[in-house]
């Protein structure tokens, strides 16, 4: 069955987590991650899970989005807003039909405000669910629509090729290293580093770097830091 990872970021209502687990189970998904849930799972959550208690019991609780994406190679954030980012935008169907079967995570934001810009900086693409002018899907409905399309694509045999990309945690380490380097050489500062990081993330995420390329870039940045520190030495 498809190995899509469902990541619920700061979910507020345990009942919605239970209903999301039920939606996942209906369509063969079991890999559930919860990022900083605002309340513990309740009896009501298990009641709404309805035969998907194993999905809840197996859920991984993380403190950060980066932790929840460890081991994945591609992250998609669900959003209802049009964004200026150059990241690719998919419908649930297009994502299911064109993306690899393995290593993909889909992030769903809190029930009230959705994913923040900081959450979305970890994503290489967006999923937008087409709706009429009035759009008010709840969390479990959004999970169900994505899971349904993923299941149908698997059932039709529409599987994309293996994604030759490195795990997200290696890229996150690379981005941390890059920003340290840019701050040290004066390329950016506290006021501008957010937009600089967004730009470089967009560039390198589109490049689908290999592990060797990540290592080479980090070697370059180590050399830059070494050279800059040597110049700084009286």
UniProtKB/TrEMBL annotation:
Coiled-coil portions: none
Gene3D superfamilies reported for this sequence: 1.10.8.590, 3.40.1280.10
Domain of life: Bacteria
Keyword Methyltransferase among record annotations: yes
Reactions catalysed: cytidine(32) in tRNA + S-adenosyl-L-methionine = 2'-O-methylcytidine(32) in tRNA + S-adenosyl-L-homocysteine + H(+); uridine(32) in tRNA + S-adenosyl-L-methionine = 2'-O-methyluridine(32) in tRNA + S-adenosyl-L-homocysteine + H(+)
Enzyme class: transferase
Task performed by this protein: Catalyzes the formation of 2'O-methylated cytidine (Cm32) or 2'O-methylated uridine (Um32) at position 32 in tRNA.
Family membership noted in the UniProt record: Belongs to the class IV-like SAM-binding methyltransferase superfamily. RNA methyltransferase TrmH family.
NCBIfam families noted in UniProt: rRNA_methyl_1
Name this protein carries in UniProt: tRNA (cytidine/uridine-2'-O-)-methyltransferase TrmJ
